[in-house]
TrEMBL record:
Pfam families: adh_short, adh_short_C2. It comes from the Eukaryota. Belongs to the short-chain dehydrogenases/reductases (SDR) family. This is SDR family oxidoreductase. Keywords: NADP, Oxidoreductase. InterPro entries: NAD(P)-bd_dom_sf, Sc_DH/Rdtase_CS, SDR_fam, Sec_Metab_Biosynth_SDR.
Length: 273
């Protein structure tokens, strides 16, 4: 009879030893939380990308000062605009200067816009959809060859997408309504499901985190960096190797606590385009 207590090499189950990760929107916020987690879980290279080179350089300097990095591990600044194909091509060629493979792609860069229904601007809707959906698709498409390089059935490469509970429930309405944002996050969750089936045979898994720093939260607290860190390390490690096409709500149960979602500080609609 099989020994059901036997788990292969349990101490390494959540390890990211020697993994190479790319984090879009990695210069601050959730992306920087995740980058720190990747490095502290053992990743050897973590590429930080966002539009502003100075912000990427500063994030990298901060990450490289972490006291518990494995010898030789480092964060690398690769600024680029993910919203354009030219920007993603530039990102890819910068990453290629340092590595021939990528194990984890965290497609996290995103933007939001709040404006009431009657005057909701066409340009804002388009820009939010472009960055939150089309850019995610194009980044995954262009990085697929690098993601496939080391991917195997037992150790697939991972693509993580940051969505939002606004893509599962109802987002902000009224004066600061987020029609484009909510639609974009619903779209990117479904994009993840389609890509899970398309890329699964290439040994690339897809997962989404749908995050909200919620007020009126059943857990009576806001989200913490460790809440993001725990999920991205789980999904990127051997422990999460069979999760594909899933969306994980990191919101303390807030989605189910209200009929209508209210935006809190971290997810406030604003002019971020
Ligand atoms: N914070 C929350 O409570 C929350 C909740 C739900 C979902 N989310 C989602 O989580 C993700 C990260 O959110 P956050 O709050 O951490 O965001 P944030 O603090 O506003 O940071 C956004 C990041 O994306 C980068 N970025 C923006 N436009 C870009 C572009 N065109 N190309 C490349 N990088 C770009 C920004 O840097 P540059 O300005 O230098 O480009 C920055 O690094 C987003 O997808 C967001 O929709 C956040």
């Amino acid at each position: 009879m099989a020994d059901e207590t036997a788990l292969h090499d349990f101490p390494s189950l959540f390890s990211l030893k020697d993994k190479v990760a790319v984090v879009t929107g990695g210069s601050r916020g959730l992306g920087l939380n995740a980058a720190s987690a990747f490095l502290q879980a053992g990743a050897s290279k973590v590429f930080i990308t966002s539009r502003k080179a100075k912000a990427c350089d500063e994030a990298v300097a901060q990450l490289n000062k972490l006291p518990n990095l494995t010898p030789g591990a480092r964060a690398i600044s690769v600024p680029a605009d993910s919203a354009t194909i030219a920007g993603i091509e530039s990102l890819l060629s910068q990453v290629r200067q340092h590595t021939a493979h990528v194990d984890v792609l965290f497609a996290n860069a995103g933007a939001t816009w709040g404006e009431k229904f009657d005057t909701h601007p066409d340009a804002a809707f388009a820009k939010v959809m472009d960055l939150n959906v089309k850019a995610v698709f194009n980044t995954i498409r262009l990085f697929a060859p690098l993601l496939q390089k080391r991917a195997t059935v037992d150790d697939p490469s991972r693509v993580l997408i940051t969505a939002s509970v606004a893509g599962l429930g109802i987002g902000s309405l009224g004066q600061q309504a987020t029609f484009g944002y909510s639609a974009s996050k619903a779209a990117v969750i479904h994009l993840g499901r389609n890509l899970a089936v398309e890329l699964g045979p290439r040994h690339i898994t897809m997962s989404g985190g749908v995050e909200k720093h919620a007020q009126g939260n059943p857990m009576k607290r806001l989200g913490r960096p460790e809440d993001i860190a725990g999920v991205v390390v789980y999904l990127s490690s051997r422990a999460g190797a069979h999760v594909n096409g899933a969306a994980i709500e990191i919101d303390g149960g807030a989605l189910w606590a209200k009929g209508q979602l209210m935006d809190a500080a971290g997810d406030e609609p604003s002019a971020k385009l």
